Amino acid sequence: MSQLSVSEISAQLESSNSRDRMVALAALREVPAEQAVPLIKKVLNDEMLQVRSMAVFALGVKQTEECYPILVKLLETDPDYGIRADAAGALGYLADSRAYEPLVRAFYEDTNWLVRFSAAVSLGNLKDIRAKEVLIAALDSEEVVLQQAAIAALGEIKAVEAVDKILRFVQSEDWLIKQRLAEALGNLKTEKSISALKYLAKDSHPQVQQAATISLQRLAAD
User: Fold this and answer.
1) What is the rounded distance in angstroms from the CA atom of residue 134 to the CA atom of residue 54?
2) Which residues of the chain carry a pLDDT beneath 50?
3) What is the pLDDT of residue 2?
4) Would the pTM count as exceeding 0.85?
5) What keywords tag this UniProt record (predicted)?
6) 154-200: per-residue pLDDT in tens?
């Protein structure tokens, strides 16, 4: 398919066919952010949830000064938990340190686990050490996916002080938790981390073994 012009994309975003609108959003990949964002805003309140979701994600990729306040508002007020989760994820892509506080609020106050999961992942993407206490608290969550996100994010923000807290998962029955642990420990160089990685490198699950081996190599190269 030949590349659509900005005017063609704009027209297609007003099509009554939701597939046309999604194709138009995808076409914005090649359009500079300053031109793309006004077009993305046209479908932020689309009747089709999938179109809205694509638009919210696009605001995290096409970054202008407008994107941050729009995403925070969606995170804090949108009635659809999927859109709130998308907004939390997009804020992580923006890598704007201002997002720290709204993401922490979402983690503590939103009642939906998917929104809290996205907030935890994005706190890791911000690489802001202030998130350490929030993420340590998330380790006690009843939702396994939140534990996975918190472990990964603690590695992303290089919270070396959290090593003892996450090492309790070394015996987890969930291989994904052990994989996240192995990946996180590769960013947290301590003697305990290296010892745990040597143990995880012998795990029965190949992806845990691989993650631990890669992390050991990374730590050895530091």
Assistant:
1) 28
2) 1
3) 52
4) yes
5) Antenna complex, Phycobilisome
6) 999 999 999 999 999 999 999 999 999 999 999 999 999 999 999 99
